[in-house]
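Let us work through a complete example step by step.
Step 1: write down the sequence.
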Amino acid sequence: MKHIVLLATCMIAGLPRSPVEGVQLVSDEEAKRLVAAKQAEYAEMDGEDDDDDGGDGLDKKTVAQLTALAKEKGVAVGDKPKKAELIKALREHADSVVSDGLDDMSDDQLRQIVADEDVPDDGVDDRAGAIAAIRKHRAKA
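Step 2: predict the structure and record it as tokens.
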């Protein structure tokens, strides 16, 4: 997986993406294709490393932090999961989902996407609601 910054609006995983969305996490192949087409460039990420933990920092988090992260990302975990189980589930989830970058965007950027993409914003009154509305809208597109 590679972090990229879009230089132009393009399709990623069948969905339109815009430079205003910020850093995107895509497969190595997708990154190579977009960079070669001059639609993106590789992003420099602070704190990136190649530690044994996959560079995701999960090994440094507590069970409570991992459980909260799993809940936030919608990753199902059983009652009183062990740290290793949480880390495995979160990494499998990350591998199965192409990041859309929405979680890393500012509120202003999210509002701009809602406006630009004509996302229905009925009942959207917080950040999580805006992100959910954008994802739902894009899934229908």
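Step 3: interpret the result. Residues 1-48 form one domain.
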